[in-house]
Amino acid sequence: MNAVGVAQPRIEGPAKVTGAARYAADVPIEGLAFGAVVLATVTRGRIRDIDVDAVRNMPGVLGVIDHRNAPRLNPKAGGFFGPDGQLQLLQDEMIPFAGRPVALVVAETLEQAQAAAHVLPVTYDEEPHDTNFTADHPAGRPAMTIFDEPVDVGDVEAELAASSVVVEERYRTPEEYHSAMEPHSATVWWDGERLEAIDSNQGPFVIAATLATLFSLSLEKVRIRTEHVGGGFGSKGLCGPQLILAAMAAHRFGRPVRVTLTRTQVFLTTAMRPATDQLIRIGADADGRLRAIWHEPAFEISPLVEYIEGCTELTKTLYAARAIRTRLTAVPLDILPPYSMRGPGAAPGSFALESAMDELAERLGIDPLELRLRNEPAAGPVSGLPFSSRNLVECLREGAHRFGWGTRDHRPRLRREGSLLVGTGLAATSFSAGAFPSSATITAEADGTFTVAIGATDLGTGARTALTAIAADALEAGTERIRLRISDSDLGPAWSAGGSRGTTSWAWAITEAAEKLRGQEWRGTVTIDTTQSLGGLPGRERHAYSAVFAEVTADPATGEVRVRRLLGMFAVGRVVNPLLARSQVIGGMIGGLSMALHEEGVRDPVSGRHVNADFAGYHIAAHADVPDIEADFVPDHEPGIPVGVKGAGEIGNVGTAAAIANAVWHATGVRQRSLPIRLDRVLE
Ligand code: MOS
Could you give the CA distance from residue 421 to residue 395 in angstroms, rounded to a whole number? Predict the structure, then answer.
């Protein structure tokens, strides 16, 4: 009767490998028309004219929607970060960034729509733009505080002055792009007064609520389904341009319309991780005990929507220091609005913090592992709250044992194999855990099965399989008696697959619904909402933890760095499905490897445009880059959350880049404080 904890392959695996599983752009719909998006080619300015007559008579063209004939949208619509100007498509002639949609061409076939979109004449009045991010940019101002308030504990200046060793350095990360395998796609039609959509997103309920607000519809008039999603990494957490534009077109032409972004359009008009520039000062006594951590990151945003890249999350919780100060600066520029991506804030923040800790260990002459063990906090260093459970030390010790850390000579540039330099490095990580309100409905069917309905989404991580196991145990039934329904906004309010809080939020709702059904002797139907019980959760520091170890080679002749080995030990609470959880954290570690060595959005400083908006120019780790990766879990349990889950969505990503950068220092003797660690940077 224990399905949780058992390694089960994905339920939908056979459907995916045989092609039977349908993604948003695959679903057949009768009478379908296709929309092709036209994006602004200037970085700032106004549309002078769109010559619709030039394409009106092209084969199959039904029409063009632009700012002159688009329906008016509700400017209050937004998401997690408040009202979102990124959603206000085709509302005026203003161009706030290169890649802003300026028109949608709708035609009978995809090819006809694309052909007309390709030649649609659009002229602009250009205005001067600024896309040049620097930490001391005059437009810089304090960032919004949601998730990551500035803190001031102790006297950082006095503690730094009293420190035996101080590290003061800047660390930089570039613009990065989510790059989910499946491009954003939506198919929308009006069923009488009701708007129906099949859309590629991370949470149909949240997206439906946003879309309803945007089009001033009541929520019951919007239904969004999302059966299979080919990855999101944050970019599908918001109401995407594909959905907004397809909804406009379905309304205008009175038939179903599908809008699928091209790969380049996904780069130019969905979302990205902002560039960061982070100043860190860490001071310690000669024995390695931290006196002060002072972390001041700056990141870029768009004036269209407030966003926070919360780079100081780990700084506030990972180590005991007598004084901690954090300040986050946002720099508004004429760029694509940034949005959460693969461990938002934590991933770039961890690169800075864990690189600086390695530099500190070097200057103190202390083993980097030992330095971390000496600074384990007994309670939250800023919050003062107890940790709900904290198994970082177990991750560090077990990882070090398996990796063979104990035999490491900590001096750099000593190991050689032929012409290659070899080095190892580590990083410690945390990622915040928690749950958001969700509802669930369970019906005991006459045939002895249970129908479990929850507005969850499976991005390809195996959520369907995990939730089936959780439901089976909660209902004291075998998994064969569970019929799980997910991916439909009609199933009620539910949190998205995001913030590493999908499984925690949904498991909570399913568990609570099952308890209620038990109370009525497993008969009938129950619906619950977890808003109240979440509110009863005691204040604790709740985090997942990991320790990541890396071995790299560096070629002094070419500057090429290759990762040879990665080992991650994780404390993510109870592991629902070891097979899928391992796959997920390995995927995260590959994302971290990719961040360390490859990923970099490049802008032309003159035009302000993104110049590598495709997979030829924007490099992502491919099979040949991915080494032997070992990932495993230490026993862990989250006491406050049903099933004991903490979430495994993003933590795999977070520590890996610093572990690799630290290994590159160990191999070469040179610090890499800017990502990615390109060949030219290593050669310099
Ligand atoms: Mo995410 S970056 O929590 O989808």
Answer: 27
